Amino acid sequence: MATAQPRTCSIARTLDVIGEKWALLALREVFLGNRRFDEMVRRTGAPRDTLTARLKTLTGAGILERRPYSEHPARFEYHLTPAGRDLYPVIATLMAWGDKYLAGEDGPPLVLDHTCGHRFVPQLTCQACGETVQYGQARVAAAASGWAR
Amino acid sequence: MATAQPRTCSIARTLDVIGEKWALLALREVFLGNRRFDEMVRRTGAPRDTLTARLKTLTGAGILERRPYSEHPARFEYHLTPAGRDLYPVIATLMAWGDKYLAGEDGPPLVLDHTCGHRFVPQLTCQACGETVQYGQARVAAAASGWAR
DNA sequence: GGGGTAAGTCCGGAATCTGGACCCACCATA
DNA sequence: TATGGTGGGTCCAGATTCCGGACTTACCCC
After folding, report:
1. How far does the CA of residue A75 sit from the closest CA of chain B (Å)?
2. What is the DSSP string of A69-127?
3. How far is the CA of A60 from the C1' of D25 (A)?
4. Could you give the number of structural domains in chain B?
5. Pairing between β-strand A122-126 and β-strand B64-70 as defined by DSSP bridges
């Protein structure tokens, strides 16, 4: 009898790369334009050691790119690659959830405006039909073979 | 001179709740309809101990609800609360990123169909104008006071 | 020379995670 | 009666990871 193997779905794979502590907060800083090591340490509060390790993982995974901006005192900035930029929806939806359920009485600590002029409230939609999608409106279609692996 | 404090943004707060290892994979199983402890252990591969701890955190945070489905052998199921259901966009965008960047040659291990009949490819849009949003199209609007706290 | 900045590395102790064994209550079978 | 299976855990010792703080190197500015 085959006992189900743990799935290796795309969620698990993605979390292997960005699921460690501080990885997403480091990414948040890059999204906000803070690309340098010390600045990230200050803004996130991550231990320097840990941040070093995370940045290494993220560059290794092709999410960030380590670019020198000075030689001699060799200094580096971390830039988003296209793959990194594509993580924006993850960050945005995480933030939206926190805004809704964990904001204090001051309201959300960080407010974004969309280029359309309105406050940016992220929404999930279906690329095909454009409608908003909530839990229950998408169903498992097929096990491309990897369902239980 | 005030050295910047680590931000406590909504992302950090959210990660405090769902950012620990296995929390999101446990949630994935609940989203897929597997609500029972042993099933989650099998499907995720998480250590039983760790899963116990995560489920406790998630119920404590109001994301899951522990409902008895049998007395006497006391047995429980974990159900999504409305707050839990609102995490669907996070799961969906994580999965979409993994599908795009980490899928093997077999393609994505898990394929979803939207009720509109098409393959479900999650997209991030602006609630106000309905347009798709990518990195760079939303800007920091104001520091509600908590910017650097 | 003195102080500051940037990007790390090194360290020992603390906290977490891990796999595996164990437990208890039930049910089914024979 | 024993035997085995399921479900939802707990307990434990060892491995791994995280943590804060000190230290380093190389520059710049005054």
Report:
1. 21
2. EETTTTEEEEEE-HHHHTTHHHHHHHHHHHHHHT--TT--S-EEEETTSSB--EEEEET
3. 26
4. 1
5. unpaired
Q: Which residue range(s) make up the domain with B95? A: 10-101
Q: Is residue A15 part of a domain?
A: yes
Residue A83 lies in a domain: yes
B61 belongs to a structural domain: yes
Q: Is B33 exposed, middle or buried (0-12, 13-18, 19+ CB in 10 A)?
A: exposed
φ/ψ (deg, to 5) at A134? -125, 170
B89, B7, B20, B124: which is closest to A32 by C-alpha? B7
CATH code assigned at A26: 1.10.10.10
C-beta of residue A24 within 8 angstroms of C-beta of residue B19: yes
CA-CA distance, A26 to A45, in Å (whole number)? Answer: 10
List the single residue in B with minimal CA-CA distance to A142: B111
- At A142 the pLDDT is 65
Which stretches of chain B are DSSP H helices?
Answer: 10-18, 23-31, 37-44, 48-60, 82-85, 88-101
Q: Which residue has the tokens 């926190």?
A: A98
pLDDT tens profile B53-102: 999 999 999 999 999 988 778 889 999 999 999 999 999 999 999 999 99
Task: Identify protein residues whose C-beta is within 7 angstroms of any atom in strand D.
Answer: A 20-22, 45-50, 53, 72-73; B 36-39, 48-49, 52, 55, 66, 69, 73-77
